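Quick one, T. Sequence first:
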Amino acid sequence: GMVKKMKNQELITNKKPLDLQIKNGIKYFPVFVVLCIFAFLLLAPLVWMCLGSFKSDTEVMQYPPKFFPQANHLLENWKTVLTRIDFLTLTKNTVIYAVGCTIPSMFINALAGYAFARFNFKGKNVLFLLFLATMMIPFQVIMVPLYLEVYYLKWLNTYWGLIIPKVASAYWIFLCRAAFQELPKELEDAARIDGLGEFGIFWKIMLPLVKPTMITMLLLGINNCWNDLLWPLIVANASTMRTLSNGLAIFIGDRTSEYSLAFTAATVSMLPMLILYIFGQKYFVAGQVSSGIKG
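Structure tokens:
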């Protein structure tokens, strides 16, 4: 009976009074309203694009605009898209670009981050500051020199030209360094005593312990490459080498504006990233947050 009384007492003490719940609700209501407004502003263009894929061109352009489609034109829009662009080739190129950039990038940037976090060598801090300084330089500034490098190496319109210049990233090195720095020194000391070499310590002991950072790199890396427009537009402008982002630009130009087709193709090309985001949401958030907290 005593235990039952104590449990009941705990429930009473843990339960917030109704007036306190109402007070908290009133206190956070303005925040909730502001968040709802921001969510609407962010989602409205996305929803408009998805609904636009069901409309005809005249419906998309009509004024005053109607939010919901009057008839379903999705199938005929999709058929027209397939006759106008080679969607399979564009998707294949995008997958090769995204995976080809991200997998080597994970390995190379993890190695660099590990070296900065665990080794002491001359000029380490200066070198790391130089790496960080490259994050301040916009891509548009180094775009022309990078293009010339690719041109002189005869890598234009090849996967090498698309992938190699994008593999190393100061942002990912910074993130990996922060992750490796948090691991205790005793781990590598014990591994050295067991006779493991430096690469063995990195590969077998340290890398598995920073798995969340690696998954974050994988998901965000694939997402960034999938949505990248500028670099593929410069170095891979042959019709057989285009990625989805610049392949879809064909529908919106100076002389043509086929919005319903553009919306249809964009909606379909967005689906893989949407699925990736739904399943890896916490890693996407971690990637945005950890660069501000760690290090």
